[in-house]
What does this fold into?
Amino acid sequence: MTDKEKIALLEDMLELDGGSLRPETVLADLDEYDSMAKLSLIVLMDDEFGKKLTGEQIREFKSVQNILDFMD
Amino acid sequence: MKVIDFTGKTIIVAGAGGIGSSIAAKLNALGGKIILMDICDDAMNHTLSKLNGENYAYHCDFSDVNGIETIINSIIKLHGAIDGFVYCVGIGAVRPLKQSKYGFMQNVMNINFFSFVEIVRCLSLKGHFSPNGMNIVGISALGAFLGNSTKTAYCASKGAMNAAVRCLAKELAPKCIRVNTVAPGVTDTPMAKAAEEYGAGSKEHDAILERQYLGICDPSDVTDAVVFLLSDMSKKITGCCLPVDGGKLSS
It folds into this structure.
């Protein structure tokens, strides 16, 4: 999956318009990145990438790029 | 003399981890012969190692409802009529609604609800339960009564169990079969720990703990209620849901 496709998945998950997110986007600056979004991210990682994401790992995510890196 | 004695009774415990393990150990300590059912062989072997006498384990995938009948029939064939059945199987699925598609919802319902009803159906056929009757307890959840964000599938499955049990109790009463549920509040189990991982530190999680004012339940607290409902001490109780919730429902 390309970074563009991964970003599209995140935009869909956060119900953001296409093109809203960039790799350098800081998660703390996004109103949509709330506790429900973090839970959605756990489910997304499990469903789409077969990866278990822990609360600890989520807390380490600072930017969209960090999430993209985890998806690999 | 023991007040509650399951000597000579054969009891099926579906779900061998967490609460199921505690229930199996207690029923066995009170004299019961235990037949475990679970998808996880390690959990069954671990629970079996805590039991005395001859007890048995049957591998069962509770997401495959159509496969249940064959397993129950083979249990009956080998062990004879059943005196008690406890259903402690459940997945504590936490998932936002937008990701709760039909396939996910159906899987939760299959495991938490449909397989329970299917086992009750198979066990309540003539000759499959003891001539003295049979007592059935399903482990529901307090979530059946509450609105829990992100737990639509789980709470619906437990609410379905409570509703079904009221009907089953009435329909099976002429066969001397009693059917009840126990609804635990937050209990110290592996499933609860997995859920905590998602919600630890959240306002909702803290609020739950504040409402459960007698404190977090231990599996043994739930077990005591199940033992009571399986025993003749509760012989006039059927179709009910007994909360073991540290007071949460009242707060």
Q: What stands out?
A: The helical segments of chain B are 18-29, 41-48, 68-79, 102-123, 152-172, 190-199, 203-211, 219-230.
